[in-house]
Write a structure and sequence with these properties.
By secondary structure, the protein is mainly α. The chain has helices at 2-26, 46-56, 59-90, 96-105, 115-125, 132-135, 142-155, 158-166, 171-200, 203-208, 216-224, 231-263. It contains 12 helices and no strands.
Length: 267
């Protein structure tokens, strides 16, 4: 038992140390990178460096854009993926298996192949430079549909759906009152993964957004550009940009545990 706890402690330490050391460097001057031995305690310049970040790039707007985009995409993916997963897992309709295969097959197509036609579509819709160009194309994805289909096919008994139909529930009523409570644990996991993916997305926002309306990742790339790299400035921005992810993990972790307790179905 002690060896197990020691192992877990060591894994947690080595996982969290890079984040901690980035905060240490972000609270000092660039000269701290050349010190031997390297500093292990935070300095007193963190807030001054954070102020420089907000003075250099519109980082407040970038944080707001990333929160809106990642939050909207996560909620939409959880809802639409659960809805589609319910249909594929429990409903009967013509062409269901073929449609599921086609949906899963799209996961094998690199996203970079669709950048040019997607950008041309955004130009026609006049969405370039806006958050609509980031949110609408990502409202649902094949991974989410496949993930929720596999989960609901095992976690949602047919007897429970039949009991709901006997009580007079429509298909939409079954989805709201039976499927969503049972899907909460998987939806929370999908929401975490989707939020992290949308928050860390860099290539498509770089293509479709303008420099005065960036997301966090585009703003961080601006901080890291230039003839002389200001590592302290970049790490200060990274520390701020990582904080929302930590909060989301903490909040959704509680939701996963609560969802397992509330959404579990006893046989």
């Amino acid at each position: 038992m002690r060896l197990r706890y020691l192992t877990l402690t060591g894994v947690a330490f080595f996982s969290a140390f890079p984040l901690y050391y980035s905060v240490v460097v972000a609270s000092r001057h660039n000269s701290a990178l050349a010190e031997v031995p390297p500093p292990l305690l935070p300095g007193g310049n963190f807030f001054a460096n954070v102020a420089r970040v907000f003075d250099t790039v519109p980082f407040g707007l970038a944080l707001l854009n990333s929160i809106i985009v990642a939050g909207s995409i996560s909620l939409a993916v959880m809802f639409f993926s659960t809805l589609a997963g319910f249909a594929f897992a429990k409903l009967r309709f013509r062409g269901k298996n073929a449609m599921l295969v086609i949906t899963v097959a799209t996961m094998m197509v690199p996203a970079q192949l669709g950048i040019i036609p997607l950008y041309m579509l955004m130009i026609k819709l006049e969405w370039t430079g806006t958050n609509y160009a980031l949110i609408v194309p990502a409202l649902v994805n094949a991974f989410g549909v496949f993930f929720m289909t596999q989960y609901l096919s095992r976690a949602l008994p047919n007897e429970l759906l039949e009991a709901g139909r006997v009580d007079g529930c429509t298909t939409w009523g079954l989805f709201w009152h039976v499927v969503l409570p049972a899907a909460r644990p998987a939806a929370a996991v999908l929401g975490m993964l989707t939020f992290m993916s949308a928050w860390n997305d860099y290539f498509w926002p770089l293509v479709v957004l303008t420099p005065d309306n960036p997301t966090v990742q585009v703003a961080l790339s601006t901080l890291a550009s230039g003839y002389v790299n200001d590592y302290v400035l970049g790490l200060a921005g990274t520390a701020i940009g990582t904080l929302p992810l930590v909060l989301v993990f903490a909040l959704f972790g509680k939701q996963i545990i609560g969802g397992i307790m509330q959404g579990a179905v006893k046989g």
